[in-house]
């Protein structure tokens, strides 16, 4: 299934969008609406029949098109659409594919906002959801019903870092005649879900892809046909719900995307270093690059090896009190920030049970193995990770004495 000839970093390196006057960056399209020389062309553009024409920026603009093309090339899909946030991408996909009376099978560990939308919002529209273990294809298949219209998962899940067997899940989806959507936010470049059989690939661009923590953004990568459906003026979820990304932001994200390959390599190197050292020190560490991770071999099978195992790591500090103290001390030592989100130059950490996954009820958190002592860290681009490790050791050493 893997298409070896597709190399995502080369796709980014080879992007070539010139601006007006020969600018090395594309010009920003600072317009909400566009003129036509002929009324006929406007009508054709409305109907999606004229290439290279723009109608209105809720539909698309040259700036959002450039970024969409870059993302489609990175994910090896025919087309892509950028949105104002990752949730804008996720909700557009779900509302495009699901109607009243339909059923969705989703990974049980997904980002808290995605979980809340599926659990609390979709039922209001008459859409049912069953959550299952994404690393267990049989459990996911057992949840599929005749009215199931979509299987949804995250390549590497937030926050538990469970690895989805994308190839197996796509096989199951296609056997049942339905698409597989994969949120690839935690593993850009590392996984290319479409090459493993996924039909729809979603990102929160807010995270690694933009990498600057200055904006939210999202995207959907898929076939030309599906992207056109999302943008259809009559019934396209993206067109009608309007989660549109501004042209200025699209231009900024495109420029930041140019450095994504080097950033991902450094995030992965730093995280691997800390994971190994902290595990050796006896801390409970979950990281897909460690042999102790239950899906280490699956991750290896699916990954593009150039980019490592990613920048996300889970530490189990045993109790909520220790986790909170650890994070506060980490911030005091300026190792990173106690903040949600990920993919920044600085290390970010939070306790997902209390923060980004607090939408998931406590009993379900327990069932999926999410404990109050867990700290999710997005490891930064620290130039000297050995120095960072020494500082973390100091924080860890100070913990128990303070609590006692
Ligand atoms: N998907 C994942 C895996 C996430 O972690 C997040 C946000 O944390 C989202 C989607 C939502 O993205 P956004 O915050 O850009 O709407």
Description:
The chain is an alpha/beta fold and 404 residues long. It contains 15 helices and twelve strands. A seven-stranded mixed beta sheet has the order 1-7-6-5-4-2-3, sandwiched between helices. A five-stranded mixed beta sheet has the order 8-9-12-11-10, with helices on one face. Helix 7 (166-175) links the parallel strand 4 (148-154) and strand 5 (180-183). The longest helix has 21 residues, at 260-280. The structure holds pyridoxal-5'-phosphate. Pyridoxal-5'-phosphate binds at residues 85-87, 111, 113-114, 154, 158, 183, 185-186, 204, 206, 216, 218, 356.
Fold blueprint:
Blueprint: H1 8-13, H2 39-46, H3 62-75, E1 79-83, H4 86-97, E2 103-107, H5 112-121, E3 128-132, H6 137-142, E4 148-154, H7 166-175, E5 180-183, E6 200-204, E7 218-222, H8 224-230, H9 237-241, H10 247-257, H11 260-280, E8 284-286, H12 296-302, E9 312-316, H13 320-332, E10 336-338, E11 347-350, H14 362-367, E12 374-378, H15 385-403
Parallel strand pairs: 2-3, 2-4, 4-5, 5-6, 10-11
Antiparallel strand pairs: 1-7, 6-7, 8-9, 9-12, 11-12
Helix pairs in contact: 3-10, 11-15, 13-15
This protein binds pyridoxal-5'-phosphate.
